[in-house]
């Protein structure tokens, strides 16, 4: 069972919360940070830090910096106000579990939306590439049709010289 971390420090302004959490000699790559608008978890075995935030934060713009055996969070509040505490108090375990589950579902939904947005952008890029290629092929076809017409300047060319494949081979 993980050991709960309680020796953290935090400060705040009306718009942000600054949280410093010691990693106690744990390797940086072993620290797992999970943050949503109402929930913050840092797992660095055998330690665990969990905070059910007093009020919602803007988790998209909030930041975590790991280094020097410390994780330093800059959490931007959604509403400018001073918090009484960092975490909710006086809430039963069932309510905390609901907050945790809702946070996980929100994170999964955002990850799914990001994957879908990336796939849509890739499809748009492929469509653009295909359109450009089709225009190029259309111009090539027009050029070949023009080569096959009876243009006075081309009358002195032999039949094989009018063939684009012959020109291509001659270029090699």
UniProtKB/TrEMBL annotation:
Signal peptide: none annotated. Coiled coil: none annotated. Keywords: Cell projection, Cytoplasm, Neurogenesis, Nucleus, Repeat, TPR repeat. Residues 3-87 form the CS domain. The keyword Ribosomal protein does not apply. GO terms for biological process: determination of left/right symmetry; epithelial cilium movement involved in extracellular fluid movement; heart development; inner dynein arm assembly; nervous system development; outer dynein arm assembly. InterPro entries: CS_dom, CS_DYX1C1, Dynein_assembly_factor_4, HSP20-like_chaperone. GO terms for molecular function: nuclear estrogen receptor binding. GO terms for cellular component: dynein axonemal particle; extracellular region; neuron projection; nucleus. It is found in: Cell projection, Neuron projection; Dynein axonemal particle; Nucleus. PANTHER family: DYNEIN ASSEMBLY FACTOR 4, AXONEMAL, DYNEIN AXONEMAL ASSEMBLY FACTOR 4. This is Dynein axonemal assembly factor 4. It comes from Prolemur simus.
């Amino acid at each position: 069972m993980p050991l709960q971390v309680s020796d953290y420090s935090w400060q705040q302004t009306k718009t942000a919360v600054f949280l410093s959490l010691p990693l106690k000699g744990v390797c940086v790559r072993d620290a797992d940070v999970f943050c949503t608008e109402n929930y913050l978890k840092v797992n660095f075995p055998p330690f665990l830090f969990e905070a059910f935030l007093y009020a919602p934060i803007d988790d998209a713009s909030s930041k975590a910096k790991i280094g020097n055996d410390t994780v330093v969070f800059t959490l931007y509040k959604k509403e400018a106000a001073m918090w009484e505490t960092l975490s909710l108090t006086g809430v039963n375990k069932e309510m905390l579990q609901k907050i945790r589950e809702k946070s996980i579902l929100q994170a999964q939904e955002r990850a799914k939306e990001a994957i879908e947005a990336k796939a849509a952008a890739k499809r748009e890029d492929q469509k653009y590439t295909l359109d450009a290629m089709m225009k190029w092929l259309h111009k090539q076809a027009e050029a070949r049709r023009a080569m096959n017409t009876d243009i006075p300047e081309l009358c002195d060319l032999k039949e094989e010289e009018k063939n684009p494949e012959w020109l291509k081979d001659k270029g090699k």
